[in-house]
Amino acid sequence: MAIDWKDYDPGIFYDELISSPGNSRKAARELCKRLRQLSDEELLERRDAAELAIIVMGITFTVYTEGGSIDRAWPFDIIPRIIPRREWEKTEAGLRQRVQALNMFIEDMYHDQRIIADGRFPRELIETSRNFRPECVGVEPPLNTWAHICGSDLIRGNDGKFYVLEDNLRVPSGVSYMLENRHVMKRVFPEVFEHQNILPVDDYPAQLFDMLASMSPRPMDYPVVAVLTPGIYNSAYFEHAYLAQQMGVELVEGRDLMVGEDECVYMRTIEGLTRVDVVYRRIDDWFLDPEEFNPDSVLGVPGLMRAWRAGNVGLANAPGAGVADDKLVYAYVPEMIRYYLDQDPVLDNVPTWVCIDDKEREHVLANLDKFVVKPANESGGYGMLMGPFASKKEREEFAGEIRKNPRNYIAQPLINLSTTPTIDGHGKVAPRHVDLRPFILSGDDIAVTTGGLTRVALKSGSYVVNSSQGGGSKDTWIVDTGKK
Amino acid sequence: MLSRVAEHLYWMARYMERAEGLARLVNVNSNLVLDLPRSVTFGWEPLIAITGSEPAFFELYDEMDEKSVTRFLIADRRNPGSILSCIQNARENLRSTRDLVPREAWEQVNDLYLHAYDRLRGGIAKSKRYDFLRGVIHSSQLLNGLLDGTMSHDEAYEFIRMGRNLERADVTTRILDVRSADLLPGRREELTPFENIQWMSVLKSLTAYQMYRQNVRVRVRGADVLRFLLQDREFPRALHFCLDQVEACLHDLPRNDAPLRSVTRLQRKVQEADVPELADEGLHEFSDQIQLELGQVHEQISNTYFLLDRAA
Prior knowledge:
- The structure holds two protein chains of two kinds.
- Chain A contains 15 helices and 26 strands.
- Chain A is of the alpha+beta class.
- In chain A, the strands form seven sheets. In chain A, strands 5, 8, 21, 22, 25 and 26 form a six-stranded mixed sheet that branches. A five-stranded mixed sheet of chain A has the order 16-7-6-23-24.
- In chain A, strand 21 and strand 22 form a beta hairpin.
- The radius of gyration of chain A is 23 Å and the shape is globular.
- Chain B is mainly α.
- Chain B has two domains: 1-151, no CATH class; 153-312, no CATH class.
- Chain B has 16 helices and no strands.
- Chain B has helices spanning 3-35, 45-50, 54-60, 66-75, 83-95, 103-120, 126-150, 155-181, 188-205, 209-216, 222-231, 239-251, 257-272, 275-280, 283-306, 308-311.
- In chain B, helix 1 (3-35) packs antiparallel against helix 5, helix 1 (3-35) packs parallel to helix 8 (155-181) and helix 5 packs antiparallel against helix 6.
- The longest helix of chain B is centred in the first third of the chain and has 33 residues, at 3-35.
- Chain B starts with a helix and ends with a helix.
- Classes of the chains: A alpha+beta, B mainly alpha.
- Chains A and B meet through helix 2, helix 9, strand 10 and strand 12 of A and helix 1 and helix 6 of B.
């Protein structure tokens, strides 16, 4: 029995491929037709082929809690998620606008703090921010850009609109999986690429390199770029190695680098010491330089901050960029867009209540069963309360936490994430919830990935898309359906 | 290239070569044991001697019988020198440097490890052993071929080639040392009818039998075998050949003075060895010397290229 799209019912949710049972959306028509032509066995054969390809290609991620086994095959679903090109172009414009404002905000925070002086952003948020780095005040990074690589999470509600859920400005990961997902799809579904116009994604490494190179303090020479990784036990190590390889640059660990007496950064090579111009660091601020941050860090490079401040090395993302990667600051991004760019935001935030505000906090506490409450500084879906699904006891305990530390929490209504057809544990196609993480590069120009990484909650009804907690991913197609 | 990366690649190659050498050794020994009379009971002990792992072995097992020795050498993760451990180490070394080698090479090693891990989980049945070991040998050969045919012969490649050849030289020396101990004067009388097959087995452990016949063209004799495995310029597992390779690698690397000096010194020693005399006596001491100097070559390479950061 092949797939019968009439039996596929996403219910109240917005579905990415199917508009109503039996009817596919225009951009997904070709794919749905082809999938229908496959028998169940053929579909599962493709799935198995994809799984095998992932194992053989060594596409892995690491889960922290699992002590011994350090990597797991990347969970992947073979039915792609499709976005029409025209819709994507609008979303892309929104992301550019957003990241531009975020960079201006960070620059402002470490210099004049105009937005605070003008009363458009509360001072106490910065004063209490865990990610504000006094070490960065007054620093002038190249091009005045701080968040060179941003990964913004988008979700789609029942109304079919994209909302921004959060902006990851510290060390966002996932882009390598976006690239690899496409490779896997081409291996297992070559024929579906032949009959329609699916925009390619593989330009990213070249764009990333150009962006990094544009920050070089020695613009006359061919810049030496390095990717700084915490090492093979990091959950995103696969990605670090992958990006370094794709860009043709060195993948270095802290112990490969040193800062010389001339305050320049060098790497230890078989030739001796070689000067490094730009470091794409995939290590958190806190571990970057034991001289200024965590003194016990063995992952970092002593003196790196000195070299950066002296303008002898470019760091991406700049230390301190995380100040805008705080869910409280997030609540003010639409305001930043209005303030710095004098524009209306193209993309909306998910409505957000900040618990530091007395009125908003009381509203949240009174309606905890309707809210999703998130800690301001965690990522990976840790430490949050899903109000509608939590028990009374869990809600009460969480309410206590919020009262104790209101700065640390925000609340959002539960957004019904859109669904998309996914192969379930029984080999049947069923609706599963997805989000989307596009990546935005800011150098002398802003570039957005074509689509992004679609993450999918593989369990029925689940909203948790994080790979560390049972999520998987899909290839994301931006499809050009031709005529405007 | 990064010192750390050079070191990983070098060790990756050494571990893969070590796994391959062990696989050959166990296979050939299985055959040899079948051919020898029951009264000649040396059986499986020499393999433990060749790998220099008696103490480690007796910590884990009581008796050097076939079952324990093959398990120890092939599938035991507690033995850092087992085939499985070597493959795992090769993979770990490659894992952190895989951005430098062609993707197929990583896939090959990763695949070999996953496969070996899966098959060896419950030990390995005697009937499946041959196939498994052949698989390991093929994998290693395939990896060498892949690297040779798809990787730029750049510095990273030189470190791989250097590791492989140093390890090969090491394996050949160990095999010569232990195997010939059984064959040298003293025990000769008793063993004469079988002496020939044992020298043949030495050659076969190194897949050298066919090439030996083609090149030497006389019946297999101890002194000729020794000469072939020590001094032949063309056979890829002969000491002379391996050292030539290491020397050639070093010529393409920067700052090569010290390591190059130690290799040429060793090369001279191998070439100038008086083989007929060694066949009579002193081979063991000679092998020890060679082993020691191979260690020094490694140390020079390590000091020059890997440890530089600690001196900086």
